[in-house]
Amino acid sequence: MEWPSQSPDINLIEHLWEELEKCVSGIRARNADQKLSQLQTAWVQIPQSVLTNLPRRCQAGIDSRGFAD
Questions:
Q1: Distance of alpha carbon 4 from alpha carbon 23, whole angstroms
Q2: 67: helix, coil or strand?
Q3: Is 2 left (phi over 0), alpha (psi -120 to 50) or beta?
Q4: Distance between CA atoms of 16 and 3, rounded to whole angstroms?
Q5: What is the spatial distance between Cα 2 and Cα 17, in angstroms, rounded to a whole number?
Q6: Which InterPro entries did the record assign (predicted)?
Q7: Where are the beta strands (DSSP E) in 1-69?
Q8: Tens of pLDDT along 11-45?
Q9: Among 9, 13, 15, 11, which residue's Cα sits nearest to residue 64?
Q10: Where are the domains of the chain?
Q11: H or E element, residue 48
């Protein structure tokens, strides 16, 4: 299968994981329940700007037909 050498980053979940990682990096958890609690807290703290930019990023990928400029 042909794949463009430079495709736009339209994997939206990666952007959300990046934000979660920023929030919990450096915070140790004693067990899985504590880590889950930390992640849930971080999830609600994701900046609204990250969420509002997701549709724009999707449309940019659609408009470019999978190719970066």
A1: 33
A2: coil
A3: beta
A4: 25
A5: 28
A6: RNaseH_sf (IPR036397)
A7: none
A8: 778 878 888 898 899 999 999 999 999 999 999 98
A9: 9
A10: 10-21+49-62
A11: helix 48-63
